[in-house]
Design goal:
Structural class: alpha+beta
Strand content: 5-15%
Radius of gyration: 15 Å
Shape: globular
Largest sheet: 4 strands, antiparallel
Strand order of the largest sheet: 1-2-3-4
Number of strands: 4
Length: 127
């Protein structure tokens, strides 16, 4: 198992599942569903038939994107946990995460495997 921390969101990643704990304490449990839609998504993202790998990568990317954007927590993960959020924003986030997941998969690089850049943040650059 591996634990990934993004701000106050923690992802516990197992062989074929992820348990994400949000800052509110709510948990989101993800595991392969083996649905036709999920199998098609896995193929489109470059995972072939490996639904477990797609699952392991997906929710941590939600948490990483939210942290990168300075959000308290992922809107889509909060929606999955039943917290009151905009469904429209959750859907937009889902599309963004799937796109980033495809890109990371193609590159073979993931945010949690790359050291943080030494560059100042954009706000610091504006002076």
């Amino acid at each position: 198992m591996r634990t990934l921390q993004f701000g106050r969101t923690r992802c516990l990643v197992g062989p074929s599942w992820v348990v994400t704990t949000l800052p509110s304490g709510a948990e989101v449990h993800a595991h392969p569903q083996n649905s036709e839609g999920q199998r098609q998504t896995a193929k489109r993202l470059g995972y072939g038939d490996d639904l477990a790998a797609m699952t392991r990568d997906h929710d941590p990317l939600h948490a990483a994107l939210a942290e990168w954007l300075g959000m308290k927590a992922s809107t889509a993960l909060r929606h999955a946990a039943g917290e009151p959020v905009s469904k429209g924003l959750a859907d937009l986030e889902e599309a963004a995460v799937v796109a980033v997941q495809a890109y990371c998969r193609a590159l073979g690089r993931w945010p949690w495997d790359v050291e943080a850049p030494s560059q100042p943040r954009a706000a610091e650059l504006r002076g």
